[in-house]
Amino acid sequence: MSTSSRTSDKPPADRLRGIEAVTDSGLAHLDVEHLLVELLDRVREVLGAETAAVLLLDEPNGQLVATAARGIEAEVYQGVRVPLGQGFAGRVAASRRPVTIENIDDADVVNPLLRERGIRSLLGVPLLAGGQLLGVLHVGTIELRHFDASDVELLQMVADRVALATQTRLSEAERTASVVLQRSLLPQRLPQVPGLEAAFRYSAGAGGTVGGDWYDMFVLPGGWVCVTVGDVVGRGLHAATVMGRLRSSLRSHGMAARDPGTVLDLVDRQLRHFEPGEMATAVVAFVEPSFECLHLSVAGHPAPVVAAAGGGGRYLDVPVDTPLGVASPSRRQVTTVDLPPGSVACFYTDGLVERRAEPLARRLNLLEEVVVAAPPEKVCTTVMNRLIGRERPSDDVALLVVRRQDGHLAPLDVSRPAVASSLGEIRAAVRRWLAQVDASPADVTDLLLAVGEATSNVVEHAYGPQGGTVTVRIELQPPEVVVTVQDNGRWRSPRGTNRGRGSHIMAAVGEVSVTRRSGGTEVVIRRRVGAPEGQP
Amino acid sequence: MNAVRVEADTDDADVRFSLAGEIDLENAAVVEDQLLAAITNHTERVSLDLSGVEYLDSAGLRVLFHLADRLSTLQIEALLVAPADSPARRVIELSGLAQLVPLDPPDRSGGPAQPGVR
User: Fold this and answer.
1) Cβ-based contacts of B90 with chain A (< 8 Å)
2) Contact A501 B61 (CB under 8 A)
3) Residue A281 to residues A287, A313, A325: CA-CA distances in angstroms?
4) What are the Cα distances from residue A249, in Å, to A37, A67, A252, A269, A455?
5) How far is B118 from chain A (nearest CA, A)?
6) Strand pairing category for B77-81 and B45-56
7) What whole-number distance in Å separates Cα of residue A386 and Cα of residue A405?
8) Which of A441, A452, A499 sits opposite B57 (nearest CB)?
9) ipTM of the complex
10) Chain A residue with minimum CA distance to B85
11) What is d(CA A23, CA A27) in angstroms, rounded to the nearest whole number?
12) What pLDDT, on a 0 to 100 scale, did the predictor assign at position A112?
């Protein structure tokens, strides 16, 4: 049996030039698999080999997985896996050194495809990047072949470049995937809950890499509202996927559990059972259907900040139980906090308050200072502006702010030219406003009539040819809706026939009072809305 | 201009109007013109279906009262169709128009008997 030697006369560096283009910018657009395929063709050519293949390390399983192959494509099609330390590729990976096999008949080879393909001689080198094993690159010949030192050196040089390019592309792919995943795992909008406004912000950390932060708000059966933020320890795709699973668990346990402590306990057990080694911090709050108070439980997470109407922000004094996934805790504690009308609760992850160059205490104080009982969008804007500012946070940041609306609905004020074409517009505004009140269709019909008659009167009788303005204010003074229509003209008595029905209609739909002054007229119509007292 | 639609379906001596939308001070005169234009000296019966009317105030009532008055003078039969709980029905009941023109369904407070209804 003769062994052929096809060692080129050229030194390895010259031969390498032929495949150097593999890592050049012309191939920069290729993804990992296409890049490898391109490379393998060039390697085969330069080394005069029939087959070339790359197996990448699947670390959790301790296996090498065929990822790209030329001349022996079935390896990829069949998803060949080789355990570390076993067979030819496994030995290359385990030893992290080049391995040559001159005659496959004398060697331990796991992969039957190599023999089936008629491969006689093999050369394999590790793919190493920054001392980290990424996989194995190997070539094979059908003829018996003695791979010499120059062949080994050449293949290893190629492998080093490939490893770098692969690593870059893999981490880019992961980064892209985790951003996409994160986007799909986090709610893009929060539910509209009348009486409970909410707003959120999410910012990926430095380099755009995602982490495991989440925020969520959902309505539970019976009108309870669950608000949660949390943080899976770690970064990147892995943390994002764990976060996604936790978030859906929080929703399903939220449906079944009676309190936030039980929700966290169930999620904790789930994490320890199915994903041992993972850790997360979280706060879960249940807002009562009346919005009067919220019940919350905290798992190793920074305490939310609350601000009552007219007051400043303060950290909630809540007991902090162990994070999720670390140890079986004793019973998780639930704290009940009042949520008076107009007050705000601010939930966040530690990326908001942790910044390397600054003491944590100062950041925490700053947050307490900037949270006020304002509309949530405004609070979010202020918080991000003051705490993040112009410096990209190193960690990702999630922020969720909820606010219980004031007890009363803001009044509607409309002022329009006193002309007939304003009437439809005024009615439309009144309709929208009434939609927020617990008014029956009959209430709506009658109140529209009251506003319509009063404003028509102004248009017809208040002003001379120079015209003027009609002003409508409608407000809720439970259990009544109060309509005030004003003008600043001087009334004249109605002219023509079939007049005067407007006042009759107004009087029928509500309690009317008319005040005439030298500066104008004010008509006030009060009407009780909703079910009369004593009726269901 | 508020959206209002007046459709007239003339069948021999019968004119059936169907009104929809909002009728107020701004467009009441237009509605009146359209109604009067479709009624001729040969018309014997006029019905106005107000089922599709979402808003009607005293400006619209003025048109209806005026029309009722004219039709009565010309001895043309008139009928107003306004379902219970409709916005038009509410205003008509408040105004006493049912005292002049039969209403379908009939006025609970008992207006004039309705010739040839149903």
Assistant:
1) 442, 445-446, 449
2) yes
3) 20, 23, 9
4) 41, 34, 5, 11, 55
5) 28
6) parallel
7) 24
8) A452
9) 0.77
10) A442
11) 7
12) 83
Cα B105 to Cα A84, A239, A515, B83, B118: the distances in Å are 88, 68, 39, 7, 10
**How deeply is A530 buried, as exposed, middle or buried, from its count of CB atoms within 10 A (0-12, 13-18, 19+)?**
middle
Q: A262: part of which helix (H) or strand (E)?
A: helix A260-274
Lay out the sheet containing A520-528: strands in order across. A412-417, A469-477, A480-487, A520-528, A511-517
Which residues on chain B are in Cβ contact (under 8 Å) with A501? 58, 61-62, 95
Q: Which residue has the tokens 């190793």?
A: A300
Kindly list the residues from chain A whose CB atom is less than 8 angstroms away from the CB atom of residue B95. Answer: 501, 504-505
Q: Report which residue type is found at A347.
A: F
Which of A240, A243, A246, A76 is CA-nearest to residue A174?
A: A240
As a whole number, the mean pLDDT across chain B is 86
Among the listed residues A260, A266, A281, the one whose alpha carbon sits nearest the alpha carbon of residue A398: A281
Contacts of B25 in chain A (CB under 8 A): 420, 423, 456, 459-460
- Per the document, the length of chain B is 118
- Give the residue from chain B lying closest to A425, CA to CA: B2
* Chain B residues within 8 angstroms (CB to CB) of chain A: 1-2, 22, 24-26, 55, 57-59, 61-62, 65-66, 85, 87, 90-91, 94-95
Written as tens digits, the pLDDT of chain A (536 aa) is 444 445 455 566 666 666 555 555 556 666 777 878 888 988 898 899 999 999 999 887 788 988 889 999 888 888 888 889 888 999 999 999 999 999 988 777 878 888 888 999 999 999 998 888 999 999 999 999 999 998 999 899 889 888 887 887 777 777 777 667 767 788 888 887 767 889 998 887 766 667 789 999 998 876 789 999 999 988 777 888 899 999 999 999 998 888 999 999 999 999 999 988 899 999 999 998 778 899 999 999 999 999 998 888 999 999 999 999 987 767 899 999 999 989 999 999 998 998 877 888 888 999 999 999 999 988 998 899 888 887 777 888 999 999 998 756 778 888 989 999 889 888 888 887 887 777 788 889 999 999 999 999 999 888 888 889 999 999 888 778 999 999 988 777 666 555 678 888 888 888 889 888 888 899 999 998 864 433 33
Nearest Cα residue to A485 out of A427, A525, A440, A429: A525
The residue behind tokens 């283009």 is: A21
| Nearest C-alpha neighbor of A264 from the set A294, A299, A240, A232 | A299
In chain B, which residues have their Cβ closer than 8 Å to the Cβ of A504? 94-95
Q: What is the dihedral of CA B11, B12, B13, B16, to 10 degrees?
A: 10
Facing residue for B90 by CB, picked from A445, A456, A459:
A445
Exposed/middle/buried for A22, CB within 10 Å: 0-12, 13-18, 19+? buried
Distance of alpha carbon A459 from the chain centroid: 52
Q: What is the pLDDT of residue B10?
A: 92
pLDDT of amino acid A29: 63
Instruction: Find where tokens 């007229």 sit.
Output: A521
CA B22 – CA A448 distance, rounded (Å): 11
Cα A425 to Cα A503: distance, rounded to the nearest angstrom: 22
